[in-house]
Structure prediction request, 170 residues.
Amino acid sequence: MWLVRQFSTFTISLLILVGCQSVDVADFSTFGDNAASVEDLSKVAYYKDDELLTLGKVQFKEKNYGMAYAIFKRAVEVFPNDPAAWLGYAASADMVGRFDNADRGYALLAKWIPNRTEYLNNVGYSYLLRGKLVSARRYFLRAYEIDPANETTANNLELLRNSASFAKRG
Prediction:
């Protein structure tokens, strides 16, 4: 009799929990995003227009740097001569700490767009993330010389000033 009562209580509890589910458990992914928003693009052979770049920029803006890195990595495979793809790849590589891959991207971009403020700001920010403040300053100042009204450059110089005022920690 006790076992039947326990089984009934368990069954009723399970039915209540199942009845309360308003979302499908499969809607959640490892990244915390809704699974519908995380498309698997690895097997797609053709991308219309700037689909990969747009998706990569969205993920980067949402601070999903790992996902942005994966998307931009695919973008540089599909569009190996596109500076925008390489810029996104290098920036997202910086944010996930893959400075070796970021350097590879910046080396290519140095040949294609060496005097663009986006490139100079990104390289400077990469050095800032690594703690190489002198190199970061050099790139930020070059970006400032090209476009003194650029808001990103002004913000990066302010970040640099704040970083220089903090004590170095081991």
Q: What stands out?
A: The domain at 43-113 is CATH 1.25.40.10 (Serine Threonine Protein Phosphatase 5, Tetratricopeptide repeat). DSSP finds eight helices and no strands in the chain.
